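Question: what's this shape?

___
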Amino acid sequence: MKPLFEGGEAGRRHVADQIGEACRGIGFFYVAGHGVPASLREAVFSKAKEFFDSPEELKRKSLYSAASGNRGFIPMKGESLDPTKAPDLKEAFNIGLELPADDPEIVSGARFRALNLWPEVPGFKDTMLDYYNAVWSLGKSLHCAFATELGIETDFFDDKLSRPLATLRLLHYPPRPAALDEGQLGAGEHTDYGCVTLLATDEVGGLEVYSRDGRWLAAPYIPDTFVCNIGDCLMRWTNDVYVSTPHRVVSPPGRERYSVAFFLDPNPEAIVECLPGCATEETPAKYPPIRGDDYLESRLNPTYEKSGLVS
């Protein structure tokens, strides 16, 4: 990523072309030279483990609910990313954009705007907010690359990602048990909902990506990189020029797995509609315009209906 920041016009175009090739193909790519300190990444994983090792009673004090604005603790088997299969064998913790209690959207009860639910883990809040802001900044830089590759203004996405419905998600997968419910995985087959996902993983592995020729490919662990993938919202914005690829997590036997995902969804009022240049007479716009918050709600509800975490 360094040429995107330091290589001038030629560097930005070079990185954008590489990213665009991946986005139009497999839909996944790795980002190195991203500027997020290794010490911050390590601190996030350490605090995540500290939280997930806590007693269930403590974790449930910040339980996810329909009123929590997509924030808080999702218990083991509390989510079905593939609603046709058994619940996922994982637990998670979601953190959204940090807003003050007197923010107009908090006061009015706007959808997906809520105060974050901070657990009783020393240093957890400060660590997570530092990381949230770092990967949010990186995600905005990636959108400059997307815009460059798509031939639109490089700042097109700036005002659409200024107060995003972005979620930082901590994930813990227990060792795979000998007996699983039929079709049960660590995370069921799914595509991500937002624009782009920035995923930090440990060395355990388990992420698999569905290739265009119908094979599940293991995504290898590469130290100090982010695994990035296009989500359904950006695929919709580009009229399917960029590809949101199905993926899943197959938890390895005998080992715990931790990962940290940042899902960059647009501002709630951002209108997601076909970008200039992404429709032609042969490939007209496929999707009607939709607000960012309407789109997110349409995707989240089916994920939690089985668990009763939303109604």
